[in-house]
Structure formats: C-alpha cells, structure tokens
Write a structure and sequence with these properties.
With 236 residues, the chain is an alpha/beta fold. It contains ten helices and nine strands. The structure holds adenosine-5'-triphosphate. Keywords: ATP-binding, Nucleotide-binding, Transport.
C-alpha cells in the first residue's frame, strides 16, 4: 500500500530549482535509501518529506492518514547535538513530545513506549548516563530510540552512520534492518555508504539534482549509474 507518492516534484530555494523530476513512491514496510553526491538534493527532499518545505512544482502526497507527527526523524548529527546536557532517558522520552501535544505531563503509555525502545536498542543499562559522555555509536542508538518513540509508521534517517567506525556501523545497520523486519516500520535513509545501501535497502533513489534512478537495490547494482557509483565508492 502506498504511503508516500511523489509525482513530478521539484524543490527550489528563492525560485531556483535545486532538485526536479522526482517520481517515486514508498510503500508500507519499504526500506528506501536516498543516495547522491553532496549538494544533489537529498536533505532538501527530506525537508519535503517532513513537510518543512513545500514542493515548488508537482504533487507530494501522504496517504493512509500519515501525519507529520507520526514520522520519526533522526537528523544529521551536529556538534551542538553531540554536546546535549541531558540523560539518555530524558533524550529518549523527548521523542514523545509531539504525541504529548498540550498535555503538561507524560502518560504511563509514553513511559511504556520509552521502555520498549530502550530495550529494543539495548540501552536500558545506560539510561542514567549523560548523553554527551557517550560514544558516537551509543549516541546514535539513543537518537534512534528517540525517533522510534515518535512513530509506528515511518523512520527518516539522515546519514545515521556518518563518522562511526566499521564495527559500530555494522551494528547500527543490523538494528535498523531488524526494526524494519520485526515491526514493519518503513525506513527512509539518506546515505553516502552505497555498498551498504545496496546490501540492506530494498529500493534506491539516486539524486543528481534530478531523479537519476529509482528502483530496487538489485536493479540499481546492475544499472550503469549504480555500477559507476559503486565503483567510485570502492575506489574512494
Ligand atoms: N536554505 C537554502 N537556501 C538556498 N539554497 C540551499 C539551501 N539549502 C540547500 N541549498 C542548495 O540546494 C542544493 C541541494 O542541497 P541539499 O542540502 O539538499 O543537498 P544534499 O544532497 O543533502 O547534500 P549533502 O550530501 O552535502 O548533505 C545545493 O546546491 C545547496 O546549496
């Protein structure tokens, strides 16, 4: 069932188009990787999917009543976020803020969802630790648990493994794959790690300021653009 559909969509800043010709759809339970070089429009599309930016042209529609507040988001990590002075528990609990609305307190259900996600990400035992004292891999687990607290439908992940060592990167990919398979949550991930995108994702969207490819990961690996990019990644 189609959850998100994008028909001839372009995005622009001040009338200058930065990405165009977007024609793709995301079904419930899909695992989509968005790839492309720096400046190709990936983050702009993520802003569009989060409804923080309107398409300049075309039609971007969200089906099955998918609300913005039902999309969990793990942003690119900034230096300020890495230094956030709160406990692991507080950071994960803050994922329930959008559900809380105007209620001044968290409910038992909010706390139950937090426990579920602390356990799912294997971080129950570090719940009292200060977030900024954790390793990069632990911080990403905490942010993933936080994003999961906000959704049962879609997770948007913007370069979740950037800056992590190979072992921690693998662990995070396994976790994301498990979440997708066990819970059916749709994954939309921006990544520069093409090898892993092809390995783990079901479909690939390649941007070059326009849509250069959309199809299955298998088709992408066989395509000339995919082979070119994979070759480039291998030689990088
Ligand atoms: N707020 C903005 N105002 C004007 N132009 C912008 C703005 N944000 C991005 N752009 C431009 O839009 C284009 C696409 O940028 P975007 O950040 O979406 O690319 P990206 O693929 O996510 O890049 P990266 O891999 O470096 O994160 C770039 O040319 C960028 O300079």
């Amino acid at each position: 069932m189609e959850l998100i559909s994008c028909n001839n969509v372009s995005f622009a800043y001040d009338g200058n188009t930065v990405v165009s010709g977007l024609n793709f759809s995301v079904n419930c339970g899909d695992y989509l990787c968005i790839v492309g070089e720096n400046g190709s429009g990936k983050s702009t599309l993520i802003k569009g999917l989060l409804r923080l930016k309107q398409p300049f042209k075309g039609d971007l529609s969200f089906n099955q009543g998918l609300k913005r507040s039902e999309m969990g988001y793990l942003p690119q990590q900034t230096a300020v976020q890495k230094d956030f002075p709160a406990s692991v528990y507080e950071v994960v609990l803050s994922g329930r803020l959008s559900m809380r609305g105007i209620r001044p307190f968290y409910t038992q259900n909010d706390k139950r969802v937090v426990e579920e996600n602390l356990s799912r990400l294997g971080i129950e035992n570090i719940r009292k630790r200060c977030y900024r004292e954790l390793s990069g891999g632990q911080q990403q687990r905490v942010l993933l648990a936080r994003a999961l607290c906000a959704t049962q439908k879609v997770l948007l992940l913007d370069e979740p493994v950037a800056g992590l060592d190979p072992l921690v990167t693998q662990e995070l990919y396994f976790l994301i794959e498990k979440i997708n398979k066990d819970t059916g949550i749709t994954i939309i991930m921006v990544s520069h790690d093409i090898q892993s995108a092809v390995k783990y994702a079901g479909s690939i969207l390649h941007l070059k300021n326009q849509q250069a490819f959309f199809g299955t990961a298998e088709e992408y690996a066989k395509s000339s653009i995919g082979r070119g990019f994979l070759g480039g990644a291998q030689n990088a």
